[in-house]
Amino acid sequence: MAQDLSEKELLKMEVEQLKKEVRNTRAPISKTGKEIKDFVEAQAGNDPLLKGIPEDQNPFKEKGTCVIN
Asked: What membrane topology does the UniProt entry give (predicted)?
């Protein structure tokens, strides 16, 4: 698609994107980093990768053994 556009059209699209980006509200990383850390720590109790899945709820648990005679 970009190959079909002229250089002027591409530059116009870039300017429009930059105008959108400049309107985004920004926050200092010192604040947002702490918020992310607090959120992750609060959710850690529900994370199956950290605490595991109970055997009775594990969809990947082997249903039985395979016996070859």
From this structure: Lipid-anchor
